[in-house]
Amino acid sequence: MAPSIHRAQSSSFLRAAMVLACCCLAPQVQRYLKWCFTLTSNHLASGGVAVGHKVARLAPIRATAGSKHRRRSQNPRHRLKQQAVADVADAMAQDVENFEFEAEVGKVMDIIVNSLYSNKDVFLRELVSNAADACDKKRFLSLTEGDAPPEPMKLRIQTDKEARTLTIEDNGVGMRKQDLINNLGRIARSGTANFVKELGSGGGDDVSLIGQFGVGFYSGFLVATKIEVCSKGFQDPEAERKTWRWTSEGGSFTMQEAPEEALFGEQSGTKITLHLREEAQEYLDSGKLADLLKKYSEFITFPIELWNEKVQYDQVVDETAPPPKEGEKPKMKSVPRSVFQWEQMNKMKPIWLRNPEVVNSTEYSEFYKTTFKAFDEPLTTTHFKVEGQIEFRALVFIPTTMPFELTRDMFAEAGRSMRLYVKRVFINDK
């Protein structure tokens, strides 16, 4: 009995020793596994790898000098970090697509800068006109193809003096990815000219070219070194609409999806961001922009809102004044405060487009004084329409007193007594 009892005691002792050893080693093993997992996760996170990324298999990096560098390159953890960084770079590169312009960029740019637009101010006229065309097209498509009316459409213009950018945004028809490539990738293609040609050939119901950018869009390079266009197309089903970013510095352009880009239009829209040149900083001034908008785009159909700075005066207690006597109110002073708000620039209606029978003398007088900055009443007014090979409407005012600029030479260019508007956009006054 003694040997069997001894063996039983020895077996119990061994089992107790094994349990004690496991209890002591378990925390050490847990900490080791946790350290290994944390180390691996940190390397992946430092490389920017998210869930779902595939780690690419890289060839070993050759050391150029030093055994220490060779040992580091052979370290599995170091190779894992390099693989993670390379994978992220490859994923970003795959998201950005590079394209070349179909036209000869240098030649067309030279024409734009030196021939077509010697006055750099007209870039704003061109971009605002394109935005208004996009709103026109969206309204047409909503009436002919849509089941519900479109959201109220408008244009917004905002500057960022720190970033030196000028942004022109609308909630018009917008553009899809292929639209951006086709319409902005061909510099010498004029959407307006093609649309007029299509109308002349009998395609009056085809408005597919309204709102497309042509040479006028590239007048933005008169004042910008880089142009970014973010757009979401209205013609896609609502659940499939995506925002795309088109970027160019003049030689080529890139395309990529931009889901993080916020547009004020809920259905669709386009945002153009101009990175202004050093010599074009004057266009960051809201006063300058307001003058240009009232000159060129005052009669655009859709509201044009400018993010403008206004000075408001608050009444506060004047602490430097002597204390008021009993029963008297403390002395107050006015303190200026800057307030930024959206201000509509185009409130005047183009009455020359209406029939003369429905316009009264009060409307003529108000239009005359506002448009020509006059203080007198018009002596007489002539409002007519001409139809034929050339169609136009005209509104002529005869002032009661001769304007000062016409007293010396009535035919001098400085007189600017006649203004030409095309599609409600000011073109020339010479």
Structural class: alpha+beta
Instruction: Characterize the biggest β-sheet.
Output: 9 strands, mixed
Assembly annotation: single chain
User: How many runs of DSSP E, i.e. beta strands?
Assistant: 13
* Overall radius of gyration: 35 Å
Average residue-wise pLDDT: 75
- Kindly report how far apart the N and C termini lie: 129 Å
Order of helical and strand elements: HHHEHHEEHHEEEEHEEHEEEE
Report the total helices: 9
**Beta-sheet strand percentage?**
15-25%
Q: Determine the fraction of residues in helical runs and give it as a percent range.
A: 25-40%
User: Ranges with pLDDT <50 over ≥5 residues?
Assistant: 35-73, 188-200, 202-214
Q: So what's the overall shape?
A: globular
**Largest sheet: spatial strand order:** 1-6-5-4-7-3-2-8-9
Structure description:
This protein is of the alpha+beta class. Helices cover 34% and strands 22% of the residues. The chain is built from nine helices and 13 strands. The protein has helices spanning 2-46, 67-73, 76-95, 105-116, 122-144, 177-184, 191-200, 286-296, 361-372; strands at 97-100, 155-160, 165-170, 224-232, 243-248, 252-257, 269-276, 304-317, 332-344, 378-386, 392-399, 420-422, 425-428. The strands form three sheets. It has a nine-stranded mixed β-sheet with strand order 1-6-5-4-7-3-2-8-9. A two-stranded antiparallel sheet has the order 10-11. A hairpin with a 3-residue loop joins strand 5 and strand 6. Helix 1 (2-46) packs parallel to helix 3 (76-95). The longest helix has 45 residues, at 2-46. The radius of gyration is 35 Å and the shape is globular. The chain starts with a helix and ends with a strand. 23% of the residues are buried.
